[in-house]
Amino acid sequence: MSEFPTREIGGVIIVEAEGRLDALVATPFGETLRQALERQARVVVDMAHVTYISSSCLRVLLMGVRLARREGGDLKLCCLSPRVRQIFALAGFDLVFQLCETRAKALASFAPAGGPEHLCASA
């Protein structure tokens, strides 16, 4: 997949990832995240249809979350399959990212101060 659809809901940009996130798609995936973060520092990557993620795309996500947090926002992930969640755990990235069960919980976790931050596992 070389195109990653995006849309904005309530001031949060959702990036929809799909298939294998590997070295072949790292550049377009990184470009999509960069463009999303230029528009809004609050981003959710929906990984419901991701079957695999490589170290190159983990690096893209790490760079994205650092940029988002530097700008006062965050990059959160939702809907990870057990296999992809295991890859995040093995890499220690489950301690870096907020991993949300559903897209709705990820969006709700961006609520103003005092909001439902507990909806997602966090670092």
What is this structure, in a nutshell?
The chain is α/β, with parallel strands linked by helices and 123 residues long.
> Would you report the number of β strands?
5
Give the number of domains.
Answer: 1
Terminal CA distance: 29 Å
Question: Which class best fits the helix and strand makeup?
Answer: alpha/beta
Taking pLDDT < 50 over at least 5 consecutive residues as the criterion, the unreliable ranges are: none
Model description:
The structure is a single chain. This protein has 4 helices and 5 strands, in the order ββαβαβαβα. A 5-stranded mixed beta sheet has the order 1-2-3-4-5. It has a single domain, classed as STAS domain (Transcription Regulator spoIIAA, 2-Layer Sandwich). α1 (26-39) packs parallel to α2. β2 (12-21), α1 and β3 form a beta-alpha-beta unit. The protein has helices at 26-39, 55-70, 82-91, 103-108; strands at residues 6-9, 12-21, 42-53, 74-78, 99-100. It is of the alpha/beta class and 123 residues long.
